[in-house]
Design a protein that fits this description.
Keywords: Signal. This is DUF4251 domain-containing protein. Residues 1-20 form the signal peptide. Helix content is 27%, strand content 41%. The relative contact order is 0.14. By secondary structure, the chain is an alpha+beta fold. Strand 1 (43-54) and strand 2 form a beta hairpin. It has a single domain, classed as Lipocalin.
Length: 173
């Protein structure tokens, strides 16, 4: 009796896993089309992998960041939009983060032979820190910030900033 019950449970699990894989194959194409449609509409949001900050007492704080492309503008809620003094964010920093709207300059969208979509653009941010090199180069304190977004067939996005700094994000569908 126990052997029969064990056989029934194993056969049910095998059947469910094969049915799930068939459903997953069907949804991959739909997922790819949804990602492509979202990028083509130029109305999408990318949630970046949270950055971790370690405090003096060994406490970790993960700060969520995102940016949202809306046609010819971008709504950004990043750490450089919400600077903080010192090396560790103050208490209730995340609750008081504000988004800032910028105008996108030179938006380009291309597709590779393998079907990846590459989006590149730049915009100018207000630079509030004191850096003599930056202040000498950009007297108006508006510093260009370049981005390159690499989309595949899933909502996972590779985000590369102008200095080669790469982070990963997720496209909201």
């Amino acid at each position: 009796m126990k052997l029969l019950l064990l056989f029934l449970v194993i056969s049910t699990l095998i059947c469910l896993s094969s049915c799930a894989s068939l459903h997953e194959n069907l949804s991959k194409k739909e997922l790819e089309e949804a990602v492509r449609a979202k990028i083509d509409s130029r109305k999408y949001r990318i949630d970046l992998t949270p950055q971790a900050f370690t405090g003096e007492e060994g406490t970790n704080l993960y700060i969520p960041e995102y940016f949202q492309v809306c046609g010819d503008s971008i709504i950004s809620c990043m750490i450089y939009d919400n600077p903080f003094p010192g090396s560790f964010p103050p208490k209730n920093y995340i609750q008081h983060m504000r988004s800032v709207k910028y105008g996108i300059l030179d938006y380009k969208q291309t597709e590779t032979r393998r079907g990846r979509i590459i989006v590149s653009f730049w915009y100018k941010i207000k630079y509030d820190e004191y850096d003599p090199y930056v202040l000498a180069k950009y007297k108006d304190r508006l510093v260009p910030l370049h981005y390159r977004l690499e989309f595949g067939k899933t909502p996972r996005v590779r985000v590369i900033q102008q200095n080669g700094y790469m982070v990963f994000g997720t496209l909201s569908l």
